C-alpha cells in the first residue's frame, strides 16, 4: 500500500501569556494515495495545527513527515509544489473574477501564460463556473466562492489536496454538490485530505478517517471498520427519573447479558446491544419492573459519534 502522507510523532505547542498549550501531542498518520481521508475532531482538537504543519505553514517542534515523496523538513519547497491547500477562508481575491484569480494563481506557481489559461479553462468547466467566470468574486454566492477556492487549490495540478472544512456555511444543496466535486477529484487520482466537523460528511465522503481529540489521534480506519468496533445497535433511553433513579437504571442495565456497554449522559441512557429489535421488549419490561419512567426510546445503528463517544466518553457533537 503506497502512502502519500506518513507522519511520525508530530508535535506542536504554543506559548501564550506564560501558559503552554500542547496543541498536537505526537501524531502518526498514514494516508493512502488516491483516497479521501477525513480528519475529524471537536473544536480545539488540533486539526488545523496539524494541517498547517503538513502544508509547511508551521514548523513542528518534534516528529517527521513525508508527503508526496518529499520530506517535510528537508524539502518544504518541493513539497509545496506537489500539494494544494484550501484554507477555511479560501484563497480568492474578491476584487478579481474567477478567470483572473485562476490565471494569476497559475502564474504564481510558475506556469506560462498558455498553460495557465488552459488549466484555468479546464477547471472552470470542471467546477461549473462558466456563467460567472468574468464577474468579480465579491458577487459570488457562498457555494460559487467555495468552488472557486477549490479550483484555485487545483491550479498547479497537485497530487494531494488539503481542504479545511470545505462545506462549513454551505446550504445542503451546495454541500452535496461540493461532495460530488470532491469525489470526482478523487476519481481523477487526486488524494484528498479533508478536515470537517460534520460526522455525516466524513461518513459519506471519506474512504478512511482519523478522529483527533486533545492533540492525539483517538481512532483511525474506514467509517465502516470503526463502526464495526461497536457491533450491534444503539438504544437511547430518555429517562424521566431523578439522579438516584438514573444511577439505578445504569446499574440495572450494565448487568444485563444482552448489553455490551451502558453509559449515562444528560438525561439519556445509552445502551450498546447485540440485537436492538429483539431486546426492546426486554428493556421496556425491565424499566417497568424497576418503576423507572421513560420519556423517549430510540433504536439506531452506531454512528461515528458513537465511535468518538466510546473512545473519549464525550459526544463529538457536544464537544
Ligand atoms: N497560534 C496559536 N497560539 C496559541 N494557541 C494556539 C494557536 N493556534 C492554536 N492554538 C491552540 O491549540 C489548540 C488546537 O487548535 P487548532 O486550531 O489546531 O484546533 P482545531 O481542531 O483545528 O479546532 P477548530 O475545529 O475549532 O478549527 C487550541 O487549544 C488552540 O487554542
From TrEMBL:
GO molecular-function terms, A-Z: ATP binding; ATP hydrolysis activity
Gene Ontology biological process terms from the UniProt entry: daunorubicin transport; doxorubicin transport
Topology relative to the membrane: Peripheral membrane protein
Residues spanning the signal sequence: none
Primary location recorded for the protein, binned into one broad class: membrane
GO CC annotations, alphabetized: plasma membrane
Entry keywords, A to Z: ATP-binding, Nucleotide-binding, Transport
Ranges where the ABC transporter domain occurs: 5-239
InterPro entries: AAA+_ATPase (IPR003593), ABC_transporter-like_ATP-bd (IPR003439), ABC_transporter-like_CS (IPR017871), DrrA (IPR005894), DrrA1/2-like_C (IPR025302), P-loop_NTPase (IPR027417)
Family statement drawn from the similarity comment of this UniProt entry: Belongs to the ABC transporter superfamily. Drug exporter-1 (DrugE1) (TC 3.A.1.105) family.
Name listed for the protein in its UniProt record: ABC-2 type transport system ATP-binding protein
Organism in which the protein naturally occurs: Chitinophaga rupis
Amino acid at each position: 500500500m503506497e502512502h502519500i502522507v506518513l507522519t511520525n510523532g508530530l508535535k506542536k505547542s504554543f506559548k501564550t501569556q506564560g501558559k503552554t498549550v500542547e496543541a498536537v501531542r505526537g501524531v502518526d498518520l498514514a494516508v493512502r494515495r488516491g483516497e479521501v481521508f477525513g480528519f475529524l475532531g471537536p473544536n480545539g482538537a488540533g486539526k488545523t495545527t496539524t494541517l498547517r504543519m503538513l502544508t509547511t505553514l508551521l514548523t513542528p517542534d518534534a516528529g517527521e513527515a513525508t508527503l508526496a515523496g518529499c520530506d517535510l523538513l528537508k524539502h518544504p519547497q518541493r513539497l509545496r509544489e506537489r500539494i494544494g491547500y484550501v484554507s477555511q477562508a479560501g484563497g480568492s481575491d474578491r476584487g478579481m473574477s474567477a478567470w483572473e484569480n485562476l490565471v494569476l494563481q497559475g502564474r504564481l506557481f510558475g506556469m506560462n501564460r498558455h498553460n495557465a489559461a488552459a488549466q484555468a479553462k479546464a477547471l472552470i468547466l470542471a467546477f461549473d463556473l462558466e456563467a460567472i467566470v468574468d464577474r468579480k468574486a465579491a458577487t459570488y454566492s457562498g457555494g460559487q466562492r467555495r468552488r472557486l477556492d477549490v479550483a484555485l487549490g487545483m491550479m498547479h495540478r497537485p497530487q494531494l489536496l488539503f481542504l479545511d472544512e470545505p462545506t462549513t456555511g454551505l446550504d445542503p444543496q451546495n454541500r452535496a454538490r461540493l461532495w460530488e466535486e470532491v469525489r470526482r477529484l478523487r476519481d481523477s487520482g487526486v488524494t484528498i485530505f479533508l478536515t470537517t466537523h460534520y460526522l455525516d460528511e466524513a461518513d459519506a465522503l471519506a474512504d478512511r478517517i482519523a478522529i483527533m481529540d486533545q492533540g492525539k489521534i483517538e481512532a483511525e480506519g474506514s467509517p465502516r471498520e470503526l463502526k464495526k468496533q461497536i457491533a450491534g445497535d444503539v438504544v437511547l433511553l430518555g429517562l424521566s427519573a431523578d439522579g438516584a433513579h438514573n444511577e439505578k437504571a445504569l446499574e440495572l442495565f450494565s448487568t444485563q447479558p444482552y448489553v455490551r456497554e451502558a453509559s449515562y449522559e444528560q438525561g439519556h441512557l445509552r445502551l450498546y446491544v447485540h440485537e436492538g429489535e429483539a431486546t426492546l421488549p426486554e428493556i421496556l419490561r425491565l424499566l417497568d419492573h424497576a418503576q423507572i419512567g421513560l420519556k423517549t426510546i430510540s433504536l439506531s445503528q452506531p454512528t461515528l459519534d458513537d465511535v468518538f463517544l466510546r473512545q473519549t466518553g464525550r459526544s463529538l457533537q457536544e464537544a
